[in-house]
Q: What sequence folds into this?
């Protein structure tokens, strides 16, 4: 599966967030510690980051190569800084198509999204069933072939309808788990807040007062990390973390 990390706080360079820590997302691409499904995350990586003084929409860098094979990113990461970041390294669900359009995070407007998990039967009818429930706008925006991008489109429809980040993800969990067995650790941010679900895999939050991290696994041995129980939805901003049970209707 994938590993993801979201950050809100004082502006920091991407290398201090993603490469330098003891057990960084960079290292998790070949040596994850908490990964239950798959062994490495070498099927691409992506980073989205915000600079609100320039525009509300995030910048996005994605590659179908492993993060350790991209020397250009390693060079850029030391001079790119942001106070709001979402990054992911990918372990593709077989049968997989390894191309950039399938690599998280996904972006639409001011939103970034990533997913760690899988939907059983996605290519055997479940994808069509889920896409039939999408708005025309969000269905037409799907460019790749992954279950993650369909989950993002479902989330965007909920957000378009006025749902909060956390409520949008909770609604998607209920909707998808009603038609298929699935693991749905999803994360979405608008650059000011983060929401994430724990549904079948590990999820951690690190609250440091002036900054907050939400990720698939800790990147260091700090005592600030808290593991989120399964079947919960988290919403976080700087100095504020709330966790609530997901509504029933999940399987």
A:
């Amino acid at each position: 599966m994938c590993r993801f990390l979201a950050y809100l706080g004082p502006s920091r360079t991407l290398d201090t967030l993603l490469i330098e820590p003891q057990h960084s997302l960079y290292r998790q691409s070949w040596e994850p510690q908490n990964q239950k499904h798959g062994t490495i995350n070498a099927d691409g990586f992506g980073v989205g980051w915000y600079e609100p003084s320039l525009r509300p929409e995030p910048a996005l860098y994605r590659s179908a190569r492993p993060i350790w094979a991209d020397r250009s990113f390693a060079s850029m990461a030391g001079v790119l800084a942001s106070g709001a970041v979402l990054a992911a390294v990918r372990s593709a669900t077989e049968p997989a198509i390894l191309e950039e359009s399938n690599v998280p995070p996904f972006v639409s407007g001011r939103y970034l999204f990533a997913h760690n998990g899988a939907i059983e039967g996605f290519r055997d009818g479940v994808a069509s069933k889920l896409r039939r429930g999408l708005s025309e706008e969000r269905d037409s925006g799907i460019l790749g072939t992954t279950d993650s991008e369909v989950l993002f489109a479902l989330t965007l429809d909920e957000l378009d309808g006025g749902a909060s980040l956390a409520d949008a993800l909770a609604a998607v969990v209920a909707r998808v788990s009603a038609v298929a067995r699935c693991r749905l650790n999803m994360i979405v941010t608008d650059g000011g807040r983060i929401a994430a679900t724990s549904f079948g895999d590990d999820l951690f939050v690190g609250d440091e007062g002036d900054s907050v991290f939400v990720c698939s696994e800790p990147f260091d041995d700090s005592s600030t990390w808290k593991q989120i129980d399964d079947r919960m939805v988290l919403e976080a901003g700087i100095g504020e973390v709330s966790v609530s049970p997901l509504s029933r209707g999940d399987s």
The radius of gyration is 16 Å.
